[in-house]
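Why Two-component regulator propeller domain-containing protein? Reviewers of the renewal asked for a concrete example.
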Amino acid sequence: MYKFLTIILILFSFTPSKAQSELDWEDHFSYYQIQDIARSGSTFFVGAQNTVFIYNQTTSRVEKISSIQGLSSQNISKIHFSASYNLLFIGYETGLIDVYNLQTKNVFKLVDIPNKTGIPPSERRINDMLEDGDKLYLATNYGITVFRLNELKFGDTYFIGNAGANLQVNQLAIQNDNLYAATQAGLRYADKNNPNLIDFNEWNAINSTEYKGVALVDNQLLALTANNALQKVQNNNVSQQVNVNFNVVDFRVSEEQIILTGSQVIKVYNQNLNEVQNLNNFSIFSPQFTCAIYYNARFYTGDFNLGLLSFINAFDEPKYLSPLGPIRNDVFGLDAIANELWAVYGEYTGALDPYPLNQRGISHLKDERWINIAYDDLQDTRVLVRPIINPKQTNQVFISSYVDGFLELVNNEIVFKYDENTANLPETLDPNGNTVMGDVRVNGLDFDSSGNLWGTISLVKNGLFKLTPSSGRLDFFDISEIIPNYFSGELGLSDLVIDQSNLIYFGSYANGLIGFNPASGQFAKVTGQESAGNLPEGNSVKTLALDNNNQLWIGTTLGLRVLFNPSSMFTNPDTSTSQIIILDEDGVAQELLAENSIQDIAVDGNNNKWIATEAGVFYVSANGQETIYHFTTDNSPLPSNSVTSIAIDPETAKVYIGTRSGLVAFRGTATKSQENFEQVRAYPNPVRPHYKGPVTIDGLMAGANVKITDISGNLVFETTAQGGSVQWDTRAFGKHEVASGVYIVMLTSADQLETKLAKIMIIR
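Here is what the prediction returned.
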C-alpha cells in the first residue's frame, strides 16, 4: 500500500516551475488563528488560518506546512489525519482539499469539488471528514462526497435534501452501519452499504430540526441542535438530555468524553451525559476558543488569537504551542532594516476610506525572532498603516494611524501617542468643513537627512508636518495653496518620501503628486493626463519610491510612472512623468503594468524595482525594461496575488512580501553597496553539478567593474555593479555554459583606486 501511495503522491505533488524552484523562500505566516485540530496518538495536526503545523506532544517538535511546502493558502475549514494511509487532509472553505504525505513531504491537490458545475461557491465548504475503511466521507454545504482512499479518487456524491436538493451537512457519524448526517434540515441517515445512496429516496429523515453536529461515543449516538441542546439518538428517535447555556462552536468526542467548546468556555460530559468538567472564568488569559481536544489529562485548544494552547484547568498557566510568527496574516504595511522587520495590519480602501475601523496589533521581527504587541497595549490606536524605523536610532519606530494620529515606540514600548489631545494634531474636516472629532488621519512617514520625521495628515489644512524627535517639536505646513479643496471626502494623502536634497514628495487620492521644498517653503504639483503631468486618469497616487539615481517611481491606481528629475517640478510647471515602454514578445510597444493598481514599490541594492500589485509581485530591472520575475500564487509560494507591501533588508537582501493572506520572504541577492572590497564573496562556491542557478558576487562597491576570466585569461563575463552585488549565470557572455575549472573574478572600483581578485570553482 505505501509503495503505491508514494508513487501516486510524487506524480501529483506540488512542483513549481524549474526557474522558480531554484529560488529560496521563507515562511513568515501567523500560526495563531486556529481553525481545527486533529490528533493521532501524541501527535497533533493543527490547522491555522491558511497554514498547518504538526506538534508532537512527546518530543515538543513542531513541523510547519505552508505555501512554501505547497499548501494552497486558502481559508482552512477542516483537517483530518488518516493513520492508515499516513495522509493529512486539509479542507478549505472553497471545497479544495490539499493532501500532505507525511512520508514524502509532498502535497497534492484535490480540485474536483471547486470545479463542480452547478454548485455555488458558497456551498463547497468542507465542514467535516469522516474516515471509514477505505472511504473518506466529506460533509459539505451541498451534501456528502465520497473519496476513495485506496484509489485516491473521488467517488459518489449524495444530495440528500428533499427531492435531491442541495443540503448543508455539518457533521457525520456512523453507528451500526448507518451513516448519520447533521444537517440544516434535521438528522438524516442511510445504510452506508447501500449501493444506491446517490438516490435521495434512500435517505431517511428523523426530524427537521437544524443540527450543528452528530457524534458517537461508546456506540451511543449524540446530536447537537443549532440551539445548543445535546440529544441522544436511540432507535432513530431523539430525546433531549442537556441544554447548554452557551453557543457551541465545536462538538466532538475525545478520549471517550464529550467536549463542547464555546468561545470562552469548555464543558466535558461523560458517556452518561453527566457534566464532569466546566472550564470558564479563565484568570490568566482571555480565550477565544475555536476547538478543543482532551488528551493525557490535558486540554489542547485552538484559539483564534493565541494559537494552540495546552492546560489542565481554567487556573493553569497555559503552554503556548504555536510556532512563533507575526500576530496576523493580513499584512498592510512593512519597514525593514538590517535583520529587522516591522509589520502592521491597518487597512483602508483605494479611496483612502478606513472604515470599518480595525483594532489590530503590531509585529516586530528581530534577529529571526518575532515580538508581537497586542492591540490592548496600543492605547486604543486603531488602523495602523505605515511603520518607519529611525535610521539614526534604530530602536525607535514611528507608526501612523489613519484615524488616531501616530505612535512612537522605543524598544517595543509605546513612549508617546501623538494625536489631537497630546500634540494638537489637526482633526479631519468633513465635506462641509465641519470638524470630525477624534479623527486624525496620518499616513505617509519618512525621515530627512537631519533626522526629522515628516508625515501627511489627510483632509486638513495643515496636511504636512515635521517632527524633530530630539525635542518633540511639531511644525505644520498649510497645503491649501496647492490643494484648495483639501477637505473633500475623496482627497486624502498617501505615501511620502524624501530625496537626497531633503525635498519632500507625497501622493494624494485625486490631486496627483505633491512636492514641498522646506528651504523655500514652496509647494509644487504634478497632475493631469497626457497633455499635462501624464498621470493615469484619476490622478490617484498610492505609493512612491526614490531609486539609487534619485529618480521618483510613482505607483497609481491605474499604472506606473517615473519622474526622472523630480526636483524639476519646483522650477518647471509643465513637468511631466513618463511611462516605462517595453516590447512584448511580438515586438509591439507596451506600457509596463498599464492599468495595474500599484500597491507598493521597493528598490534593492542593484537599483532594481520590486513592485506590488493585485496581480502578484513584479521584479524589474533598474530601468524597468526587463521583468526578471513575476511571482504569483501559480508559480511561487505567494499566499495571495493581492500584494500589499514590500520591504528589503539591505544587508541580507531578503525581500519581505506582505499580502492579504500572509507574509513570505524571498532570499534575494541584491545587497547594498559597500565602501570597499573587504567583504567580497562569491556563492555558491564551488558550483557543483546539480546546481543550475546563478553565482552571486556581493560585497561590491557601487559602480565597480566586474570581469570574470578563465584561468588562461579569456574573458567570459563583464558588467558594472549597480549596487552591492551582481550575478553570473556561469555562461560565456550568456551563450554556452563554461567548462569545469577555476575562474578569476577581477574587481575594480569606479574611481579605479581599489582592486580585488576572487576565485570561483565550477564543477560540471
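The mean pLDDT is 93. This is the kind of structural detail the renewal will allow us to pursue systematically.
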